[in-house]
Amino acid sequence: MLSLEEAQSRAQDLVSAARKAGADAADAIYACNASTNISVRLGALEDIERSEGEEIGLRVFIGNRSASISASDMNPATLGTLVDRAVAMAREAPEDPYAGLAPQDRLMKKRPPALDLTDSEEPEPAALRERAMMAEDAARAVPGITNSEGGGASSGRSQIALATSHGFAGAYGATSHSTWASVLAGSGSDMQRDYASHSARHLEDLDQAEAVGVRAGQRAVARLNPVKVDSGVMPVIFDPRIGSSLVGHLIGGMVGPAIARRSSFLLESLGEALFDANVTIIDDPLLARGLRSRPFDGEGLPVERRALIDKGVLTGWLMDSASARQLGQEPTGHASRGGSGAPGVSITNVHMEPGSISPGDLMADVKRGIYVTELIGMGVNGVTGDYSRGAAGFLIENGAVTNAVSEITIASNLKAMFRSLIPANDLHFRYAMNVPTLRVDGMTVAGG
User: Name one GO molecular function term (predicted).
Assistant: First the structure.
């Protein structure tokens, strides 16, 4: 793995070589990821994996023609061939009036912000194995657990460097630590599975392994003996660990490329009140130790905290430079890059701000509803907003969570769901995308 200084220098050298070879403009991105993963099952070591890979990608422009190419071999001779091929490919590429680097006057000029993304601690494999064992042992010790899919622990480190021919060069690193456990309760056809996991940038922020295991075990046991549910229209309450998927569907409809292609259910919704005025959704790339924090975007633009939904209102699209040009707007600092291909669009650390009532109060008036803890399948139409997914969770009767339910389907339309959505006050920052408990009225539930 190259140091950050070496990675940035390598990207800059590749861009300079592309310009000398005849490219009008170019950018290069270097990415390296190294990780160690340990998994155990039934108290025995099952797998140990160490992976390390690096890639450098080059994008060149000749007029409005562009080409991208990548390599995992950092040998200077290989990189020289990479440059020649990219330039030759660009000369033969079709013209794209929207292609090009980010606007030069928008590039990040200041020193990148310090986001505390790297941890000096790098656990040895023996420590990872111990943590995995502790998580699985704690899960298996929960009364009612009869089998295990395993437990695991991992640590990783990544380095990113980006350089452009019109004045940007930057690099940053990040670390990650995680623990997980997945177990089964019951037996035969009545067996139920569930899991728990936690990830953090710094080891000191990671949940204790025993706590992760206990959550996994308790969740699996709680799902035993599911009952049948009569079909009907009723409130559905989403557990925080899966409620974030609703925000994910919202973001999928906000990305500039989907708007430019006119393939989003939000196409005519800019400035519209999609949610109740009590709902605000924030994207914060500058969150210290955030799981998706970054000091600049995939095109070298500065990033900032932004309300995607402000008091219920859709504030704007999420755009890279190409989609912004196509829409006649400005890029928003949401470009993302892989080793090859043009930039895409991605969000960072997203959360929905909490409401004013507790989860208990949120369901207090629900005579019959569903508390969903698992979603299955991908039955969501990003063009129309139609929503239909398999689900499992618990029946709500007279304001209280009662029996487990499984093999049900919940359906509606995303816009209708957004309009009726009510957040509880139990927001916790545990994932890259965080929401409190969410209530959505008027969903159609089909029993299994």
Answer: metallopeptidase activity
